[in-house]
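This part of the workshop introduces the protein records we will be handling. Getting from the letters to the tokens is the skill we practise here. The record below serves as our worked example for the rest of this section.

…
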Amino acid sequence: MSELTGRLFGEPTVDTVFADRNRLGAMLRFEAALARVQAEAGLIPDEAVPAIAAACDPDLYDIGQLAEATRLAGNPAIPLVKALTARVKAASPEAARFVHWGATSQDVIDTGLALQIVEADAAMAPFRARITAALTTLIQTHRDTLMAGRTLLQHALPTTFGLKCAGWLDSIRYADQRLTQAVNAAARLQFGGAAGTLASLDDAGLRISAPLAEALGLPEAALPWHARRERIADLGAALALHIGVLGKIGRDIALMMQTEVGETFEPAAAGKGGSSAMPHKRNPVGTVVLAAAAARAPGLASTLFAVLPQEHERAVGGWHAEWEVLPDLFRLAAGAASHAAEILEGLEVDADRMRANLDLTQGLPFAEGVTLALAPALGKAEAHALIEAASKTAVAERRPLIEILKSQPQVVAHLDDAALSALFDPSRRLGVASGFIDRVLKDD
């Protein structure tokens, strides 16, 4: 992780979860728990546990030395277990015989990862809760705030900012549910020994597995998953989905921040959003991070899917490709959630500008409603042709559409001034927007 840009795209608490020292700590938690459970089951002497547990302190190990040894060993568990054994041996030669008893390197690394997944998810939870709360407040505040709905970046029918926020909330809730499901499925004990049979423990493997999982606070897998990585890939997909949903919110807000639009603004802060060349600029910052994270996440997640076809009982490179990808996805997801929470909690909304922008198109978005109102009398095709021609005139002459229609005998014969005014009242052209909002709020 870059020290220079890491704070922009990541989040300190989750960055710490995947820092090398914490990764060692998670693996050593497995080793300590394994020794305790095996002693309780009578597989190793009780006297071995204190020396092993005391040596399972990540601060006792030199990360630089382990990193160099990892380069030669092919994974960090091999040099860590050697270093752990040496440290235990210095305290108790007899206890050193029982370090890592019956386990394999992948058991240590995968279970350590499972512990990190749980920890990272917990660290992200407050940001996700803040996003939900902020969106709920925005929906309630702006339920009736009129704005232009936009399709293909062009004005369509009127909508409300409350409904737009309700759409964001509905999406983030789904993404949250998917992420929770994926975390619960992926964060499981890995304990299979050399080839996934726990043969080194003879018939005691199943007696050890359940209490080991309980000791670590993890679910017990039905069987070892050394080369079956579908749950890891699914977790990566859920993280990418979460990031993508936040990217959608960020992109919408960035578009509404454009000078020509000016409807919403990220919260201001000293030194935020400036330009090195233009003193007047108020650039998007958090929304840029959301967009950048959403652009990076699919490629990272695709790596996890690319390595699903792993060879037999242990992979040649596929498992190894996950080691940096999944932490990167967590870092991006946490960073995006942190920025999104800050943006939404302090979002500046210019309701007057939203209403003014709605009037920019001279009433053209209401053409559909007038067409439908005239259709029973004129027929849909004739009504459509009439309003289409009037719309072109309004554009050419830069006049409000309602003025053009009031001069059309075929229109005024069926629609008086009051009826036309009602058709051009955006507050009456919102359909069931309020009902949709109620549905989303009810699901809270």
About this structure: Confidence is low (pLDDT under 50) at residues 274-281. The chain has two domains: 6-353, 359-442. DSSP finds 20 helices and four strands in the chain.
